[in-house]
């Protein structure tokens, strides 16, 4: 009985190089990843309890498709959008913004921020809304953050709505200018939201 054994041949390294040039194992990393940093943050080690303090749930806001990804949009006209070259958020800006608002509300309003699951048996307030715009405006050379907030205060069923907006000048429409300016604008909006929530 005749048996056949496969023959393995090793290709020279030079023969593999043209193939390697055609294969991509993922997109090239962006020049920089952007994130948000809250100007007002809870103090480390500070204990909080929803039993003795006012509580609130801060929802991740909805958003238009243009900012539902990790790129930084630029308004180039009344009906036109582009994206900043080589700039990308570390995660979708709605999540970054919700986290920044949570830290700001905790620090400025003295409220306990809960997750929806934690608030199941707690009469907490609820803050949601839509992040309408989070990007640059080429015509005015500004970073723009627009947030349509909706608030249901603890123990109430009525919904309060208010629009918040902040604009910060940018030196250029590029990745280096986008991050700091949008961080400043987001903090301005978060501060306004925290003061509004605290006033109830």
Automatic annotation (TrEMBL):
Residues in ABC-type transport auxiliary lipoprotein component domain copies: 35-194
One Pfam family hit: ABC_trans_aux
InterPro entries: ABC_trans_aux (IPR005586)
SUPFAM superfamilies for the chain: XCC0632-like
Protein name per the record: ABC transporter
């Amino acid at each position: 009985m005749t048996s056949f054994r496969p023959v393995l041949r090793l290709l020279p390294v030079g023969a593999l190089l043209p193939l390697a040039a055609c294969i991509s194992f993922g997109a090239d990393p962006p020049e920089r990843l952007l994130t948000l940093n809250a100007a007002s943050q809870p103090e480390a080690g500070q204990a909080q309890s929803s039993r003795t303090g006012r509580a609130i749930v801060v929802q991740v806001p909805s958003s238009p498709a243009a900012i539902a990804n990790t790129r930084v949009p630029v308004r180039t006209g009344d009906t036109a959008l582009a994206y900043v070259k080589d700039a990308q958020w570390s995660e979708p800006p709605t999540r970054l913004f919700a986290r920044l608002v949570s830290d700001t509300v905790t620090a400025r309003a003295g409220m306990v921020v809960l997750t929806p699951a934690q608030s199941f048996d707690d009469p907490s307030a609820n803050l949601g809304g839509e992040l309408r715009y989070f990007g640059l405006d080429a015509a005015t050379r500004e970073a723009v953050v627009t947030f349509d907030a909706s608030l249901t205060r603890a123990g109430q069923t009525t919904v309060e709505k208010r629009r918040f907006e902040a604009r910060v000048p940018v030196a250029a429409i590029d990745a280096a200018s986008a991050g700091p300016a949008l961080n400043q604008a987001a903090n301005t909006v978060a501060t306004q939201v925290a003061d509004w929530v605290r006033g109830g």
